Amino acid sequence: MWQLTAGSAALGLALAAVAVTAAGPWDSGQRTAERARAAAPATGGARHAPPPAPAPPERPAPAPSAPGVLTALHAPAPATRPADLAALLVPLLADPGLGPLRTASVVDTATGRQLYGEGAGTPMTPASTVKIATTAAALSALGPDHRIATTVTAAPDGRTVTLTGGGDPTLDPARLKALAADTARALTARGHTSVRLAYDTSLYQGPPVHPIGPNENLAPVVALMTDEGRLDDSESGPAPRTADPAGDTATAFAGHLAAAGVEITGTPAPGRTPEAAPLARTYSAPLADLVERTLTHSDNDLAEALARQTALARKKPASFDGAAQAVRGELARLGLPVAGARFADGSGLDRRDRVSAALLTGLLTRAADPARPALRPLLTGLPVGGFTGTLAGRFDTAPATEGAGLVRAKTGTLTGVNTLAGTVVTADGRLLAFAFLAGSTLSPYEAQPALDRLSAALAAQH
């Protein structure tokens, strides 16, 4: 029997893959063919033309259409009342595991209507849920197609080349090696086979070390680094970090240049980029991808980098303070409630950060707005309850299992702080945005399941 089941599942997956391919290209998380169909007038069922006049050879009749499998997300039914949701959430929000400080906001994304609020406008320490604000500001200021460049520029005499950091913490050894190969080819074409190497990190200003000090959760925040300064093979989460990400990257680049046939005289040293066109450059993935990675894996290094990219776009210093001003200003431009908000950093590691539950649900609601496709990665990057990212190991105990696969949310965890903000699809097909922020919690092992139960309860709503 299991062989038959497995074979049927494999066939189903194959048919699904064919269907996805046939549906055409994707556009902002939705296939363009689906979007065209959604915009067409609703008629219901297949469209059967009148029978053609008799003529050989006779064409077979069209197959009957199957009923829809997934219902579309829609606005709440008229019977939905905030009082009903309050009766459900108030007892869950009173869970002792959430501590004495707790706020909440639940909004229907189709209408923007708040269905439930408890201290929704009160600024709270958000921990990593502040990354929703950080990434939203970057998308708004720069657009989802923005890429971060790392460049190499030669001095007019060709004797020195400068590796210039553009603020891309995702630069990896493979791209660094390819950049060196491109540089070596350009130098050789100009007749230069021996150079000095400088590296420029002047794009960023202010202290490079986060206020929490050296920490495995975050490398020194500098404009040039490789693999987020990680000293192991990890791709996310805490890891040992180098104290000099820029210097290590420049040293590795020098080694790649030497292997490509360019002699390096002396050792790499800090310097300024010459006024000249770059010899070579490499680009990060598009900002949309960087935002998704930031949210799915709660990537602190990338969050700080995106906050500084926002500062640069808005002509502010690329520092902790400059980024704070730029992020707040960008959210205000989006018409969000920023009263009392503070963005001491981009990652949420700083306990001085303050955001309200209403600000977070406001951001998520705007990201769900079809008129704002540039913000859509805020939703597509959220971890899926029980399956991906920082929610992979959660929603595995009843009654929270009701939210597995339906809740997508950004987690937030500091000692005494536990938060969860995201979206959930209800039983009747609505998309709700929610934010639950708890302070002075005693244990994440009690607070996190309580937050999961709150969001999972929304999934059962009609």
Quick synopsis:
The protein is an alpha+beta fold and 462 residues long. The protein has helices at residues 2-22, 32-39, 82-93, 130-142, 173-189, 245-259, 287-297, 300-313, 320-333, 357-367, 377-380, 444-459; strands at residues 26-27, 30-31, 101-108, 113-118, 149-154, 160-164, 194-200, 263-264, 269-270, 280-283, 407-414, 417-425, 431-439. Strand 12 (417-425) and strand 13 (431-439) form a beta hairpin.
List the helices and strands and how they pair.
Layout: H1 2-22, E1 26-27, E2 30-31, H2 32-39, H3 82-93, E3 101-108, E4 113-118, H4 130-142, E5 149-154, E6 160-164, H5 173-189, E7 194-200, H6 245-259, E8 263-264, E9 269-270, E10 280-283, H7 287-297, H8 300-313, H9 320-333, H10 357-367, H11 377-380, E11 407-414, E12 417-425, E13 431-439, H12 444-459
Parallel strand pairs: 6-7, 7-8, 7-9
Antiparallel strand pairs: 1-2, 3-4, 3-13, 5-6, 5-10, 11-12, 12-13
